[in-house]
């Protein structure tokens, strides 16, 4: 594989930074008090290559809550622990086409098939909560340590829970509690609902910055081995499966539009982070808190699209 030269990458991210710097479209997530007060002006971009080079511009070192981007690393951990068949049958891997927090992700499948098919996929809340309920560990704390450790292997250094975010979300996560109980009623929750929502809420509440996201993505680009620490977080088959689910559902109900426009597996979070992966080559991480209607960072999407086009890395394009 031919990786883009360093000056080309640095120039592309600087152009993306300048080009969208003054975009003010979108709104911070308002349903989580901590996220509502994030500074919408902050904007950072990072690229990490599969051979371990790091590029950044803007506030790429500014820490923010990972939110839904965490779903891909918990999925990776569960795939590693339980294998692909378990995720396929107990969670599912099809697009729901629904908003990230939709209860219908649980309901519609059950109506349609009259039985108890899995809740959709691990990258919307229902499936992510089901996925979190599959994490091994005797106590809530050991399960949480396991999730955080795996994410840290992807990032290349230990990550930390942001207690303010965690508290803020625990006070406002009634909707996710409802999803968990509904999953339980259909036999698709594999641990205690209260503990599982707590675990899921913790997973949303660790801090990352744009460089972390790009490094975590670069680990997937590099077949599951962190290109900076050379530690294998997951094996290559697991890494490829995570990328497949990202392509299917990484941007919730606008995943199709995203893939159509950008041509890369991606994952967003309502904290304003977004990561996009070019298998075998690199990953792009962006932070900017204002979101579109679906909950995806507005400038994050613009920046990734511009960088992907500039570097010519659409995975569907013949080169
Ligand atoms: N913690 C958020 C929630 O569960 C994460 C959602 C997201 O980033 N889309 O509502």
UniProtKB/TrEMBL annotation:
Top-level taxon in the UniProt lineage: Bacteria
A GO BP annotation: glutamate biosynthetic process
InterPro entries, per database record: Beta-lactam/transpept-like, Glutaminase
Reactions this protein catalyses: L-glutamine + H2O = L-glutamate + NH4(+)
UniProt cross-references to PANTHER family, sorted A to Z: GLUTAMINASE (PTHR12544), GLUTAMINASE 1 (PTHR12544:SF48)
Subunit and interaction comment: Homotetramer.
Protein's name in the database: Glutaminase
Organism: Acetobacter vaccinii
Chain's gene name: glsA
């Amino acid at each position: 594989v031919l990786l883009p030269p360093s000056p080309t990458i640095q120039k592309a991210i600087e152009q993306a930074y300048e080009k969208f710097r003054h975009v003010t479209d979108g709104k911070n997530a308002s349903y989580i008090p901590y996220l509502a007060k994030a500074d919408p002006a902050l904007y950072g971009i990072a690229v990490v290559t599969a051979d371990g080079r790091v590029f950044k511009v803007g506030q790429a070192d500014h820490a923010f809550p990972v939110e839904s981007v965490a779903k891909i690393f918990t999925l990776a951990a569960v795939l590693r622990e339980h294998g692909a068949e378990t995720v396929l049958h107990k969670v599912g891997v099809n697009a729901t086409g629904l908003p990230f927090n939709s209860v219908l992700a649980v309901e519609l499948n059950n109506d349609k098939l009259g039985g108890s098919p899995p809740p959709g996929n691990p990258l919307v809340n229902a499936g992510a909560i089901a996925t979190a309920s599959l994490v091994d560990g005797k106590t809530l704390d050991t399960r949480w340590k396991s999730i955080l450790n795996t994410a840290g292997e992807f990032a290349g250094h230990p990550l930390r829970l942001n207690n303010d975010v965690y508290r803020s979300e625990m006070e406002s996560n009634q909707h996710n509690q409802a999803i968990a109980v509904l999953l339980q009623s259909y036999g698709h929750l594999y641990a205690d609902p209260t503990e599982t929502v707590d675990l899921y809420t913790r997973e949303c509440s660790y801090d990352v910055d744009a460089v972390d996201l790009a490094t975590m993505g670069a680990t997937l680009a590099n077949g599951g081995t962190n290109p900076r620490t050379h530690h294998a977080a997951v094996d290559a088959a697991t890494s490829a499966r995570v990328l497949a689910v990202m392509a299917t559902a990484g941007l919730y109900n606008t995943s199709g539009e995203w893939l159509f426009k950008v041509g890369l597996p991606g994952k967003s979070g309502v904290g304003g982070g977004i990561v996009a992966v070019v298998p075998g080559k690199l990953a792009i991480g962006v932070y900017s808190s204002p979101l579109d209607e679906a909950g995806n960072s507005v400038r994050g999407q613009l920046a990734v699209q511009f960088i992907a086009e500039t570097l010519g890395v659409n995975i569907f394009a013949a080169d």
